[in-house]
């Protein structure tokens, strides 16, 4: 088995993954993405694909980035002091889909590769990523399908990994200041390299390729559901939690800003419309209350 690190192989896969997802979502939505290629003054660049005010998605963003630098931002060196004073490269695909219909959940996915080099020393590298689901209305079959697809994807790499990465996802996508989960989770992993480059890369490829299988059946099932202004207003209110997490806690957002990334591309994950309602309490016995009591909790979905 060849376990040599091949950055070009990773980059080609990520660019192909972005293209495949964009082409598929264009078919589902019926509207094309805008492609925005950009360069970063400090080194590297990327391609942001954005669809707004579509037939299915209010905003869908799929970004590829490959950035290069000589000094990592504090958010990275605090977590990994061993990479301080090294040249580094980070590449990945990140996406967020915000649907028009409140019965369709929001989804987020990220797969990434990081490598830090120093002359005369071994490279430090790892893969990371995952995906998570944020429904606005509670459909247990949708959440079960999402989690089962992820478990089926991960099990060939180790029967213990789904539970570990699910727990890590629940812990990560948790709004500490509100003491509530952002959604119903999924999987999240980082610093993944223990079994060598080939194994870690294949695992990351499987995660990236599973997004469409995990999410699109839910979209197709829910996108034609009838909804009224009450449902839309609740969707906009729940999106406020998404914004709070991304701005206050998300390590990827912090890394992008501190490393002087392209702000428009970093913040493409934000929903175009959102609202904050003061001291909102859902009506007793409503679907909105059931989302809080039965779904916005840490639990086993399978």
Describe this structure in words.
The protein is of the alpha+beta class and 302 residues long. It has one domain: Coproporphyrinogen III oxidase, aerobic (oxygen-dependent coproporphyrinogen oxidase), CATH 3.40.1500.10. It contains 9 helices and 9 strands. A 7-stranded antiparallel β-sheet has the order 1-2-3-4-5-6-9. Strands 7-8 form a two-stranded antiparallel ribbon. Helix 3 packs antiparallel against helix 5. It is globular, with a radius of gyration of 19 Å. It starts with 6 loop residues before the first helix and ends in a 7-residue tail after the last helix. The mean pLDDT is 94.
Give the tags:
alpha+beta; 25% strand; seven-stranded antiparallel β-sheet; 9 helices; single chain; 302 residues; two-stranded antiparallel sheet; oxygen-dependent coproporphyrinogen oxidase
Strand content: 25-35%
Q: What can be said about the biggest beta sheet?
A: 7 strands, antiparallel
Number of strands: 9
Tell me the Rg in angstroms. 19 Å
The top level CATH class name = Alpha Beta
CATH topology, which one?
oxygen-dependent coproporphyrinogen oxidase
- Poorly predicted runs are none
Q: Give the tally of structural domains.
A: 1
N- to C-terminal distance? 35 Å
Helical percentage? 40-55%
CATH superfamily: Coproporphyrinogen III oxidase, aerobic
- Count, helices: 9
Shape: globular
The overall pLDDT average reads 94
Strand order of the largest sheet: 1-2-3-4-5-6-9
Structural class by SSE content: alpha+beta
């Amino acid at each position: 088995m060849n376990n040599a690190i091949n950055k070009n192989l990773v980059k080609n896969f990520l660019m192909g993954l972005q293209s495949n997802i964009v082409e598929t979502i264009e078919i589902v939505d019926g509207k094309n993405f805008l492609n925005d290629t950009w360069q970063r003054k400090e080194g590297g660049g990327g391609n942001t694909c954005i669809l707004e005010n579509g037939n299915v998605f209010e905003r869908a963003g799929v970004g590829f980035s490959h950035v290069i630098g000589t000094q990592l931002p504090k958010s990275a060196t605090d977590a990994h002091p061993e990479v301080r004073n090294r040249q580094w490269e980070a590449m990945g695909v990140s996406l967020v889909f915000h649907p028009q219909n409140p019965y369709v959940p929001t989804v987020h996915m990220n797969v990434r590769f990081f490598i830090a080099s120093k002359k005369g020393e071994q490279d430090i590298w790892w893969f990371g990523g995952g995906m998570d689901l944020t429904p606005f209305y509670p459909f247990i079959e949708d959440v079960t399908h999402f989690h089962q697809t992820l478990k089926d994807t991960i099990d060939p790499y180790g029967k213990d990994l789904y539970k570990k990465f699910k727990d890590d996802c629940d812990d990560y996508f948790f709004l500490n200041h509100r003491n509530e989960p952002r959604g119903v989770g999924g999987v999240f992993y980082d610093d993944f390299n223990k079994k060598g480059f080939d194994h870690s890369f294949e695992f990351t490829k499987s995660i990236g390729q599973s997004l469409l299988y995990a999410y699109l059946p839910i979209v197709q099932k829910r996108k034609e559901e009838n909804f009224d202004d009450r449902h839309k207003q609740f969707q906009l209110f729940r999106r406020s939690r998404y914004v709070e997490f991304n701005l206050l806690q998300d390590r990827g957002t912090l890394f992008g800003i501190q490393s002087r990334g392209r702000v428009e591309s970093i913040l493409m994950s934000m929903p175009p419309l959102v609202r904050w309602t003061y001291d909102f309490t859902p009506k007793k016995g409503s679907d909105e209350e059931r989302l809080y009591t039965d779904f916005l909790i840490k639990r086993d979905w399978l």
